[in-house]
Write a structure and sequence with these properties.
Blueprint: H1 32-58, E1 62-65, E2 67-75, E3 81-90, E4 96-100, E5 116-119, E6 128-129, H2 132-135, H3 137-161, H4 164-181
Antiparallel strand pairs: 1-5, 2-3, 3-4, 5-6
Helix pairs in contact: 1-3
Amino acid sequence: MWVSREAQGTHGDYTSPMPAAPAAPLRSLPATIPWLLLSGLALLAIAGIVAVAEHLHHRHELRTTGTVTEVTQTLAPDGSIAYATHIRFLTASGALTTIALKPTTSQEFKPGDTPAILYPPHNPQAAELGSNLSVYPIAIAIGGVGIALFDAGIAYWLFLRRGGVDRIKRDTKNLRESVRRT
């Protein structure tokens, strides 16, 4: 086994192994701040990528406004009441088209409402709601979690910067002393 000169004794003979490296200190809570911030930023970037992908998926679809003609009650497979919404809209070619949305357990629309509609020009029967929440739900959810993590990192960093736990302990001690005096 090769041993460096630093590990050898003063006379060149092998006397003892190299001292062990000091153990890595345990991670402290302030070390989590960059992870919160970076995780939040990463999720925001992913949300942006998902939003762009959804936009590219819908880029050739046409947008119009439809009119809710009727909302019917049906029974869902689990026995609860579901609401099926029927929407009529005019395509770019002038054809009047009626679609039925998937039944939902909540009544989102009432007759006469005018929701935004997205439809492919070659197949208007494949139309869907065109609101941002219905087009970008995954991007909105991922972005919401990213914002929460990023904000938590910033808040925690500000908390520690202003004295953090030591400040709370000091304020608690001062409060206890003032209560004892009274």
